[in-house]
């Protein structure tokens, strides 16, 4: 039996779909904070909240494998993930697949410490693990892509740094493969799209897809933070976005070696195809 956390999230939902496609006889449980929002899922749903350890004990009961989708509360991930790992150990889980972040053991990414800390908690538990160090999703840029069509401009402080994003669907399929196919236990995968790109290339891709003139304007981090504040972003979001773009400018998300496409058995979604899909959605 496989339990997938964050069951209401896009990644988890897509992972559920892929698990059932690859291994239709596998029993899958969606662990969610809001069961009332998961009534459309065609699997068993259990309440689970990383901030409520007791709920994790009951959600993970009977599981052999766990897809631990990393939490979204910056600053609380290690505590939350520790609670999940402890519940998994108590439930007798033999394999934890964890969605981590790129090169967290060597990277200066602003959120790297929480992910490497979470990986260490899992390793110290003695349970078999698979770490999926996912690069960025194309979908992270959906707001910027739509705004670019309206304004003709993409703004950021990423300089000419590149990143190797892929579709969320690609990463979800990788998670399903790690869960249901043999040979992935106690391995770490650096996963990314097949081709890296810069913000300037994103702008030119949006222009090519839409026929509109779109350019990239690189600005200083202080101005970027000011623009985000003026747009209504909270302080944590402001620091995260600006900090990540500074990381991108330094090459922290540029690495790609084809590991994701090899794991899923086909090329990752091209940036232009992702832009088309986002604009059609």
TrEMBL record:
InterPro entries: NAD(P)-bd_dom, NAD(P)-bd_dom_sf, NmrA-type_oxidoreductase
Pfam families: NAD_binding_10
Superkingdom, natural source: Bacteria
Domain called NAD(P)-binding: residue spans: 6-178
Protein's recorded name: KR domain-containing protein
Native species: Streptomyces galbus
């Amino acid at each position: 039996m496989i339990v997938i956390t964050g069951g209401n999230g896009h990644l988890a939902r897509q992972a559920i779909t892929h698990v059932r496609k690859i291994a239709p006889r596998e029993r899958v449980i969606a662990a969610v904070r809001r069961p009332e929002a998961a009534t459309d899922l065609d699997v068993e749903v259990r309440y689970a909240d990383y901030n409520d350890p007791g709920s994790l004990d009951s959600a993970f009961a009977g599981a052999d494998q766990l897809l631990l989708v990393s939490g979204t509360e910056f600053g609380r991930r290690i505590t939350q993930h520790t609670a999940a790992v402890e519940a998994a150990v108590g439930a007798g889980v033999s394999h934890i697949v964890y969605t981590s972040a790129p090169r967290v053991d060597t990277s200066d990414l602003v959120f790297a410490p929480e992910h490497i800390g979470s990986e260490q908690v899992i390793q110290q538990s003695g349970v078999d693990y698979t770490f999926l160090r996912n690069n960025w999703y194309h979908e992270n840029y959906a707001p910027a892509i739509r705004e670019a069509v309206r304004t003709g401009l993409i703004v950021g402080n990423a300089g000419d740094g590149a990143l190797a994003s892929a579709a969320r669907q690609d990463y979800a399929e990788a998670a399903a493969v790690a869960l249901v196919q043999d040979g992935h236990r106690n391995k770490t995968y650096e996963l990314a799209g097949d081709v890296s790109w810069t913000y300037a290339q994103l702008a030119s891709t949006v222009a090519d897809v839409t026929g509109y003139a779109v350019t990239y304007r690189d600005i200083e981090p202080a101005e970027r933070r000011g623009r985000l504040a003026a747009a209504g972003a909270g302080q944590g979001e402001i620091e995260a976005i600006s900090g990540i773009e500074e990381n991108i400018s330094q090459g922290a998300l540029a690495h790609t070696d084809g590991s994701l496409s090899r794991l899923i058995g086909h090329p990752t979604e091209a940036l232009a195809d992702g832009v088309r899909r986002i604009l059609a959605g």
